[in-house]
Amino acid sequence: MQVLQMQLEVGADPAEVGRARRWARSRLIGSGMNDDEPLAETLILLISELVTNAVVHTGCPAVLRMLFGSGAAEAGTVRVEVADTSARPPCPRHAQGEDTNGRGLELVDGLADRWGWQPEGSGKRIWCEVDRSEPGEGAEYVPPTPAPVRYCGLGRYAVDLSGAAGSGAGTVADEPSKAVTQS
User: Fold this and answer.
1) Is 2 or 30 the better-scoring residue by pLDDT?
2) Distance, CA of 21 to CA of 128 (rounded, Å)
3) Exposure of 173 in the CB half-sphere (CA atoms within 13 A)
4) Which of 18, 23, 132, 137 has the fewest other C-beta atoms within 10 Å?
5) Most distant CA pair in the chain, distance
6) Which among 1, 13, 10 has a CA at the least distance from the CA of 126?
7) Beta bridge partners of 148
8) What's the pLDDT tens digit per position in 111-170?
9) Strands 123-131, 62-69: parallel, antiparallel or unpaired by DSSP?
């Protein structure tokens, strides 16, 4: 299978999030996706959330990657990855009422078909995937077997640090006895 990969280095400045959105939009259009296509808007929102998390919460530069399966945006899965140099794992939070932060990973979970994270060197890579095909058109996705979870320190969520047995999928649990693989 041929994969088209595009990458952008993002500085450790919150103003870089807007630049990453503009860059991603131009690459999506250049790959044959319409600017007002719902999938394009979903991908831009996912990119915005992941880049914001990397830049704002880690204070580190990051690398944004977009990967298109089968060599064209019209086919397969679009994968978004953001790698940063912070080893601190992502910890999903639940925003309350008027809170202005804490919704990013909830949005990613709700919009992406799959998402997760894995350690990478001294940092980490957070990824999400959005399928272009309608359910039933392509190969069936088989979720990875949930791996043991370790707690990330907030006391409410657990995040899999093992990479779900090498698959790169993360797991999140809202109770110690209830782990769920992100899909």
Assistant:
1) 30
2) 16
3) 18
4) 137
5) 46
6) 10
7) none
8) 999 999 999 999 999 999 998 865 444 445 444 333 333 334 333 333 443 443 334 344
9) unpaired
DSSP 115-163: EEEEEETTEEEEEEEEE-SPTTTSPPP-PPPPPP-EE-SSSS-EE-SSH
Cβ neighbourhood burial of 170 (10 Å; 0-12, 13-18, 19+): buried
Q: Output DSSP code: residue 17.
A: H
Average pLDDT, stretch 32-38? Answer: 85
User: Is pLDDT at 49 greater than 90 in this prediction?
Assistant: yes
d(CA 97, CA 94): 10
pTM of the model: 0.69
20 Cα distance to chain centroid? 14
Write down how long the chain is. 183
Q: Are 129 and 79 in contact (CB under 8 A)?
A: yes
Strand order in the sheet with 77-84: 3-10, 62-69, 77-84, 123-131, 114-120
Q: Rg of the chain's alpha carbons, rounded to an integer?
A: 16
pLDDT in tens, 73-94: 445 789 999 999 998 888 777 7
- The residue with tokens 């657990």 is 158
